[in-house]
User: What shape does this take?
Amino acid sequence: MTALQQATEVVDPVPGAQAPHLPGQPDLVQLLTPEGERVEHPEYSIDVSDDELRAVYRDLALVRRWDVEATALQRQGELGIWASLLGQEAAQVGAGRAMEAGDMAFPTYREHGVAWTRGVDPLHVISLFRGVDMGGWDPIAAGLNLYTVVIGAQCLHATGYAMALQRDGAEHAALAFLGDGATSQGEVNEAMIWAAAFSAPVVFFCQNNQYAISVPIERQSRVPLYQRAAGFGFPGVRVDGNDVLAVLAVTRAALAAAREGQGPTFIEAFTYRMGAHTTSDDPTRYRLGGELEQWKLRDPIARLKAYLSRSGIADAAFFDGVDAEGDELAARIRKGTVEMPAPAGTEIFDSVYAEQTPELARQRAEFVAYHEGFEEAGE
Amino acid sequence: MTALQQATEVVDPVPGAQAPHLPGQPDLVQLLTPEGERVEHPEYSIDVSDDELRAVYRDLALVRRWDVEATALQRQGELGIWASLLGQEAAQVGAGRAMEAGDMAFPTYREHGVAWTRGVDPLHVISLFRGVDMGGWDPIAAGLNLYTVVIGAQCLHATGYAMALQRDGAEHAALAFLGDGATSQGEVNEAMIWAAAFSAPVVFFCQNNQYAISVPIERQSRVPLYQRAAGFGFPGVRVDGNDVLAVLAVTRAALAAAREGQGPTFIEAFTYRMGAHTTSDDPTRYRLGGELEQWKLRDPIARLKAYLSRSGIADAAFFDGVDAEGDELAARIRKGTVEMPAPAGTEIFDSVYAEQTPELARQRAEFVAYHEGFEEAGE
Amino acid sequence: MTQKLALGKALNLGLRRAMEDDPKVLLMGEDIGRLGGVFRITDGLQKDFGEDRVVDTPLAEAGILGTAVGLAMRGYRPVCEIQFDGFVFPAYNQLVTQVAKIHNRSRGKLPMPIVVRIPFGGGIGAVEHHSESPEAYFAHTAGLKVVAVSNPVDAYWGIQQAIASPDPVIFLEPKRRYWEKAEVDLDAAPGPLFASRVVRGGDDVTLLAYGPMVKTALQAAEAAAEEGRSLEVVDLRTLSPLDLDPVFESVRRTGRCVVVHEAPLTLGLGAEIAARVAETCFHSLEAPVLRVGGYDTPYPPSKLEEEYLPDLDRVLDAVDRSLAF
Amino acid sequence: MTQKLALGKALNLGLRRAMEDDPKVLLMGEDIGRLGGVFRITDGLQKDFGEDRVVDTPLAEAGILGTAVGLAMRGYRPVCEIQFDGFVFPAYNQLVTQVAKIHNRSRGKLPMPIVVRIPFGGGIGAVEHHSESPEAYFAHTAGLKVVAVSNPVDAYWGIQQAIASPDPVIFLEPKRRYWEKAEVDLDAAPGPLFASRVVRGGDDVTLLAYGPMVKTALQAAEAAAEEGRSLEVVDLRTLSPLDLDPVFESVRRTGRCVVVHEAPLTLGLGAEIAARVAETCFHSLEAPVLRVGGYDTPYPPSKLEEEYLPDLDRVLDAVDRSLAF
Ligand SMILES: Cc1ncc(C[n+]2csc(CCOP(=O)(O)OP(=O)(O)O)c2C)c(N)n1
Ligand SMILES: Cc1ncc(C[n+]2csc(CCOP(=O)(O)OP(=O)(O)O)c2C)c(N)n1
Ligand SMILES: [Mg+2]
Ligand SMILES: [Mg+2]
Assistant: This one.
């Protein structure tokens, strides 16, 4: 198979999905083809140093390594569940890297790649899936809200946060993450209506990974999702979500516009969830035959690697170095996970309110006395 | 002032509203100018007999008469509240008349004009505002759902009803009414998403009367509302809501398309609420100066009257006849209202469930015994 | 300084003072700006504090509460108006899954000082969804606090205290009492927000009420007094957390307890109170806690609301039944 | 014919039979079609009944319930699956203001034979929002009926009875018991849906439970028996309307009553039951009705759920306290 044939095959319509488009087709922004060729886009260009390119690659590779390790930990019973980002690394790292300090991200439950770019320790994310807490990082300090499990709820939070930025005269923006399925939730649409009404500095970053668990994108929308935004009166753009450079460029531009008072943008990052929805899921029940294989040819990491290699920006030693770093990271994650202390039972009561209620203090005291009873009884 | 000057003044942008447009401007469908001239529209034409035109006029006039009477009854303490349709007669009568038997309308709380075209007795509508019941008509028999007070909830009902029509193979459609304010509700947007996903035979008929109580349309949308639909993947059209012929033509076309399996349409009927939001409201607090006067020049009834007179389709005797009928109607409404029997107290309990629960039967029995106790005590 | 104020006006002044005291306080809701709210509770505030602090929102209750969360994350103290009790439900998801849980989810790193003002209850001759009493839904939701004011003094101070609270507070306003007046001391708060209060002493039966029913309870006590029966009336004020110590103290003396609310009987606040009073005062009770509530039906059309709502007679009937037990 | 079935499989067969019996029955929900639901309760049904009767919906719970209303208006009997308990809240407005009220609003002209299936409760090691017990919100809502099944027999028959009901039924499925098995007689329903049932006789204390807690209650009764204490266990089955006559009868014999549920204590079902048992059995009670519930906190991270959830020991502790009263 020639490179061209392969390219053609890769970008063929994916069965069952609104098809991605050939490079250059105007409504899909692409700066790096699946084969790792740099291409230009009339509206989006990007200037990235070699250092930054290598750092981006490192992010992608380490995030995937983390993800693979977490999946393994779940299989071994160390995590209750894990939501894998496999295949969506470029969308997340690209979006995350587009943010500045002072911007605030509002993730779903799958944005480990964003968390990584915000400097959140993977173990903080893992503690949530292990059932130790609900995400241990400091959201404001990190510029990353806690994971939000109720589909779409965070889009309104991001919009409200953006309204606060306006009132503070802060030149920052909020970045709301959502999935393709989430676009059907009323609250998500309300968020877009509010963002438009107040010209709020918020960017809606939708990873269209083709599925909401088992439900394919056509059940949510018959037209490309990015077109939704125009109906609310603000721009929408579809970017190749497996092209980290394009994602970076498009998200940077949208965030800059937001910071400058031009209001919201909706970004549809066209990508694919290469793993299961979560470790509880069995995608063989609903995935169309050959689909996964098609998308493997569009792998976001392989693509950047090809570009870096071909262009000489990175050599084998660099890639080996990242691999080694990945192994260290995985080991640290594994160790940190299995050694993670179990939370104290009293934590059930201690953060429900900022000002504890007498009734809950009573329940807590009862709880403590009850458990002390067992300890005294030696049980 | 010449007719032309007047025309120009009439169609000038209305301060504080997305402006209506000059006749012929493509995105506002108009078949009858504010001065009562018949004009043609490239996409929508209509063939209405003289008889039908007179019947349409009669509907408009009688519905207004009813509305005026109800407002008076409320002022006199006979109704708890009244939501006036003043100024929206053409939008409602046009839409209502576009329906066929077998189609089903889902009104808000203001669609008295639609109720009229569905043959619902005004007293059934009035009983709701008098607090006697929640609308006494048979929704299925009338092809008109009960009034729905929670903003937007009926749009999902209409969509579900349309899905039922599809499953029944019935060549009918559902017609969901909503206001401009309602377009911001999550549920309304979900209804459009569902309608698109299932290609359901439902038409969303939005009366953009420029206000949600006191809140002007710009707070809900910066772009014309009809453009919302494209974002969901189906057509939207803006019609002059004070032009009964245009409304009739546009709604007929949309319903026909729905019945034929072409899926939903969103119609924005551009109109104005000439009265208060309800009798509890004081529009002087928020209406812009001169706005009402501007819109009076676009009165939907005067416009049709001008056309009928000028074209000789109706003469003074006809108009006098309708006026007389209006007086009779008003008298009947007044008499029917003041004589409306109060509901029995036990009605509180009798329709909560199709199968009464023992607990509620017990509460009902207690209620009866308690009130019999008073009667025995002669209180 | 004291001033004679209607309950609605007291709220208006309380909001104004909270906004003056703290620039982070902002009001959000449908029609609260130019119109001043359908009950005029926010009258004049947009004019004085501007559109950024008194925000006329799009017509979407989930939007109001959801954006309030984001505002609170940056230190704002949003005070959200829900136009009528029956329209809080589109915001229910944000309230229950987000507003109530975020402080806990973040182990205290994200306080949610949000106030949700809801005009609640019936008796104003309105159509469907304008007369509901949804308080039990909120009181069952861990993470929220719920208060119901009954008079202008508590309205004036209570709204300020709720806004100052670091926790989310559902602030229930007895809409049919908006026009009732009382002298309000504008200088000194009469006590903490999350506390019940004995508003009339008595020995025979303890009568509990909150919000609009406090007046009814007091009237019942008045009427009972004429027949020689001495009712102690407690204004619960805080529904979550409940403050029942004064109630227990009272019931230990009277041995009898009647709870009144407009909300449907089943799983209304009366249920929780009956359970707790029985548990705490078991040996003192000479009759079970009796409940007077709305029936277990949707709120009826307004011509029937007088028959639906607890009134003086139904309260007295329950008092009689308690005494006869 | 009897068959040994897991609770989840019994639901699957019950749904299948309901669909065979009545062509107007249709299923709606997220992932219920091709995937067969995240718990596989609808496994195979789309294949056999087609996409029009087993509808994979857009991801929008208000949409599911709102369109169900429209379908019901044309005679359909929609059975809606909510994927997890914590995701019912976006549908709350439709449930409370529409589904629950339309029969009444129309004075019976628009029946709403809608079933809302909700896998509920904790104990499966899940993340936030996947372990909630929202039953009290529904039981407080007039116009809804609420049932909770505890075993495969009730699951198989109950789902069919709920679908046949002309009223809206919130059908709560104890998700952590989906895999528990029992012999199910596929020929004869064991009795009506809206009735509680004594599942173990006893004399010392009446123990009430529903859904997942029935098994826990039975285990507690077993353990108590070893210590010579005889507990009568009632499976409430129907939470709205409550069927307390068997409970009253029991409490009149035992004089003691303990209620168990996973939902937060305050205004959980135990509150209503305590109030009613006290009112009806006042003179028989030798101790107040005691409640064992979740704490008044959000459901905790899964590493803490065993400490949050009522278990055998906490039930026995309450039994001891009741007996010691
Ligand atoms: C309100 C709500 N309903 C249902 C769910 C269950 N659920 C979790 S993830 C998911 C699918 C989400 O799809 P999408 O938005 O495309 O995001 P993805 O998982 O593909 O990243 C569903 C239905 C939920 N978390 N919240
Ligand atoms: C969910 C909900 N929120 C608030 C209200 C109170 N309310 C009644 S009418 C109205 C404005 C509606 O505006 P629009 O949709 O434009 O319809 P119009 O009244 O102009 O016909 C509001 C806010 C309501 N009925 N339902
Ligand atoms: Mg997805
Ligand atoms: Mg309007």
Remarks:
- Chain C touches chain B through 41 residues (CB under 8 Å).
